[in-house]
Amino acid sequence: MSIGSTSFKEAPLKIRIVLAFFFFLSIGGPPLPAQTARPDIVLEGKVAGTQNKTYFEVSFDVPAGIHRISVDFSYSGKERKTALDLGIADPERFRGNSGGNKTHFTLSESDATSSYLPGPIPAGKWKLLISVPNIRASEDSTYRAEIRFNSKLEDQSFTSSPLETGKRWYRGDLHMHDAHSDGGCASQSGVSVPCPLFFTAQTAASRGLDFIAVTDHNAMSQYNAMRELQPYFDRLLLISGREMTTFWGHFNIFGVTEYIDYRAVAHDGRDINQILREVRAKGGIASINHADSPGSEFCMGCAWEPPTPVDMSLDRR
């Protein structure tokens, strides 16, 4: 495993643009519209004392075309020892239960808040699973669940609030790999093994980095682990990234957790410009990797030689 560090001031212009974008987004910038967006669905109800030690379900409809569901849950009576535990099920299966330890969670095809399972978001009847481990016989409690679809904030970031707001130079690495692709490290017995993401983040933090982008090759599985790790690494910004590894060159994309087909270059009639437009439409940005690397059997596809020219107007915002 290799972890490098780059001073913002010393970084090439393209990298500085990337850094400025992400620190505006996740460290020093104002809230995104998604952070204050009105909920798509509000579920409200009352729990009576007679419902102590019972379970009930609250249904809601998810339309077609949704790739992420986020839930904020609150209820009254905690000061009087009322406890409501929360879970969720899609039309086909159980998707998780956080008990009483979370008031917010999100889940998508690629990632989910710990306690919940990532996976496709099918249209149809979903259910909040509410348990009542305790409510006094004389008490009532009112609950409110706010449900949001396709949160842009959570599509781009694993934290809903800035880790830091001060103005200074930030150090980090925008191109890293771990066990979800070809990142390796030594095991406890000294054998080279796929390197766990936690060890990667821990090493970055120990070296004083402020941010890392884990850009595994054509992989999205790291996002689930990163969403779990971000609350623990509250001084290390984990940036969603991916190395789009094609036969005609490699490039990183940042700020996108939705699937983008890495095969699209010279596949099904699409070209590199169409991929870049899709990245931008989903709120992300792209950066070319090791453009001057020779293409060979030692680094297949490393050379930047897309079959069609890149439309430079895509850089204009």
Written overview of the protein:
It contains five helices and 16 strands. With 317 residues, the chain is α+β, with helices and mostly antiparallel strands. It folds into two domains: 6-31 and 156-315, TIM Barrel, CATH 3.20.20; 38-150, Jelly Rolls. The chain has a six-stranded mixed beta sheet with strand order 1-10-13-14-15-16, with helices on both faces. Strands 2-9-4-7 form a four-stranded antiparallel beta sheet, with no helix packed on it. It has a four-stranded antiparallel beta sheet with strand order 3-8-5-6, with no helix packed on it. It is elongated and about 75 Å long.
Detail the topology: elements first, then pairings.
Blueprint: E1 6-7, H1 13-28, E2 41-48, E3 54-62, E4 68-75, E5 83-89, E6 94-99, E7 104-108, E8 124-134, E9 140-149, H2 152-156, E10 171-176, E11 184-186, E12 192-194, H3 197-206, E13 211-214, H4 222-229, E14 237-246, E15 249-254, H5 272-281, E16 285-288
Supply database-style keywords:
single chain; 317 residues; alpha+beta; TIM Barrel; Jelly Rolls; 2 domains; four-stranded antiparallel sheet; 5 helices
Strand order of the biggest β-sheet: 1-10-13-14-15-16
Query: What's the β-strand tally?
Result: 16
The CATH level-2 architecture of the largest domain is identified as: Alpha-Beta Barrel
| Residue runs with pLDDT of under 50 for 5 or more positions | 1-35
Q: Kindly estimate the percentage of residues that lie in beta strands according to DSSP.
A: 25-35%
Whole-angstrom Rg: 22 Å
Strand count, sense and barrel status of the largest sheet are:
6 strands, mixed
**Coarse morphology:** elongated
Following the backbone from N to C, one meets helices and strands in this order, namely: EHEEEEEEEEHEEEHEHEEHE
| Number of structural domains | 2
- Which structural class should the secondary elements be placed in? alpha+beta
Number of helices: 5
